[in-house]
Amino acid sequence: MEYEEVRFEVADGIATITIDRPDVYNAFTRTTILELNDAVRRAGADDDVYSVILTGAGKGFCAGADTTKMPDWDDQSMEEYGAYLWMIQQLVSKLRSMATPSIAAVNGPAIGAGCDFALACDLRVVGDEAVLREGFVNIGLVPGDGGAWLLPRLIGESKAREYLLTGRDITPEAAVDIGLAVEQADDALVAARALAEEIVNKPATAVQHTNSLVDPTRSFEEYCQLAAEYQWDCVTDPEHQEAVAAFNEGREPEYDRGLGE
């Protein structure tokens, strides 16, 4: 499908999804959310995609909802509002549940739901001009898109409450210090691509299964059962066998993926 407000590109095993509304720091409309949902679904279902990057065009990651495009909620019902919010929550859910590793290249402001999109990714790289801000409390709202669920699991409950209850900015330096971001870089997208390439060069089944095993809501018993199933998938996977052979022979592994063809 052709998109109006999102760019979707696949190259060398990496899908790059770009929110493309740079004039408003990539603040989203209903169209943006529908297109993002579809793009993330496509990336996760593509066997030739081994890593996904989510970023924004220009100088922003995503400034949250475009308030100039919002419906007049005075004329809407709670059910209609819930349906609108559900679309946004589904995007966060898709990012969270996707086995293919996702990386947020936070090149600028990530505000409100835009912050939640970054938090929903598996990894984050922040640029020098990045800022992550839940900020809902500043305008009399709650984090309806997942922020109050995601942030405590990423940085701990106490620190998460600080940012959620004050609406304070998380600077690039703080994001790295508290373990929210992998690194700070001059160019977040370039650094994210380098990280994605490193992941692409690992055995794909092992990467996806490892990514799926990371779930703080799962009990240890559930983890062990799932890990045994996943380990068997890996043991019988040709890429595992090639990786072991390459290690024993002192060479780089060669996986039959047809990348670049």
UniProtKB/TrEMBL annotation:
It comes from the Archaea. One of its GO terms (molecular function) is catalytic activity. Belongs to the enoyl-CoA hydratase/isomerase family. This is Enoyl-CoA hydratase/carnithine racemase. PROSITE patterns: ENOYL_COA_HYDRATASE. It comes from Halogranum amylolyticum. It holds the Pfam family ECH_1.
